[in-house]
Specification:
By secondary structure, the protein is an alpha/beta fold. Helix content is 38%, strand content 18%. Strands 10-9-11-12-8-13 form a 6-stranded parallel beta sheet, with helices on both faces. β6 and β7 form a beta hairpin. The longest helix has 19 residues. About 10% of the residues have low confidence.
């Protein structure tokens, strides 16, 4: 049962109005959201007016806005028809992805990525993990996820909140569950963010765990806590500071180096040369958040400069437009980027 686009019969001038008819009124209620808040979000973003009349939605505005609103509403309704819910993040993703873009990405052939075409929408992508389905919410995120499957070595560079680490860990979990890698290795430099914390109590694990907490958080979002703990005990998942990677060869593993802007040039070279047979490696970082001592060059900047010409290495870039945290985060990043004194 599909959605019908109708021409209003009671209006002489229909140039600024389109009408969508939905066959299932129960799903339409879920689509609109409590007190029509989902419709309000779409109206604000696309500068259109949406009027609900029975099982129909009237879209009032310019042609481009009405077309995008129809695409977004159709995609969300199709999602509801498959038995899934519509949350704020789903609306945000559809609004971002409804913007005019280049040709849809070709499938990478990895079964962990599902590419599908919803009614009125461009191809979308899903990553399967044990706890949730993960869907890229911007074109840059979608291209990044595809690159992680297509390339043995990929870089994700951009500001905080753009999903660089989150999506990398999601791909790693997905590839592990699909049997493409035998283990997941997550690492980051143990560098303090602009403040001295002094000596931390406890054994080695207790000392480094505070630096690794963002990686634990991402894992726990994709796998049950008990499974994460068991995999850590069995060394199927390793979370360790960058310094612990020296001398190793990382074979049949999905490796993520997070906060790579805080690796020195020699540390970056050391990590990159750990790549072994059957492995994938992802390097994520934000060039604007270097916490290295003054005068120490960032290994991420050097790697970008030296490796940019190697075709088998993918470089993926994000901007404030790709921020998927609170909307204020994007505004904050743009404000700092625009201040040359920072």
């Amino acid at each position: 049962m599909g959605i019908s686009m109708l021409t209003p019969a009671n209006r002489a001038d229909t140039s600024h109005e389109s009408v969508l008819e939905f066959p299932d009124n129960r799903l339409l209620i879920d689509l609109c959201g409590q007190h029509d808040r989902n419709l309000a979000t779409i109206e604000k973003f696309l500068t259109v007016q949406i009027l609900r009349r029975g099982n129909r939605l009237s879209l009032i505005g310019d042609k481009a806005g009405r077309s995008r609103a129809a695409d977004v509403l159709s995609s969300l309704y199709t999602r509801l028809e498959t038995g899934r819910s519509v949350e704020a993040g789903d609306i945000d993703r559809e609004l971002r992805m409804s913007a005019p873009a280049a040709d849809p990405l070709r499938s990478s052939g990895a079964e962990q990525i599902e590419l599908f075409r919803g009614e009125g929408s461009a191809s979308r992508m899903e990553l399967k993990t044990r706890r949730k389905l993960v869907e890229p919410r911007t074109e840059a995120q979608k291209a990044y996820v595809k690159a992680l499957f297509d390339h043995e070595l990929a870089f994700g560079i951009g500001p905080a909140g753009t999903g660089k680490t989150y999506l990398a860990v999601a791909v790693g979990v997905s590839m592990f569950l699909g049997g493409h890698v035998d283990k997941i290795i997550l690492s980051r430099p143990a560098v303090e963010a602009g403040e001295r914390l002094g000596f931390l109590p406890g054994d080695m694990k207790e000392k480094v765990d505070p630096y690794m907490q963002p990686l634990y958080d991402a894992l726990n979002d994709f796998l049950p806590a008990k499974q994460v703990q068991k995999m850590l005990e069995e060394k199927v998942i390793e979370i360790a500071p960058l310094a612990f990677m020296r001398g190793r060869t990382l074979s049949n593993a999905f490796c993520v180096l997070d906060e790579a802007q805080n690796a020195t040039t020699m540390q970056m070279k050391m990590f990159l040369t750990r790549l072994g047979e059957g492995s994938r490696m992802v390097i994520t970082g934000d060039r604007t958040q270097v916490d290295l001592p003054k005068g120490v060059p960032s290994g991420l900047a050097d790697a970008e400069r030296l490796l940019k010409g190697i075709k088998k290495i993918s470089f993926n870039y994000f901007t404030a437009k790709d921020v998927v945290r609170h909307p204020l985060v994007a505004a904050i990043i743009e404000a700092y980027d625009g201040d040359l004194s920072v």
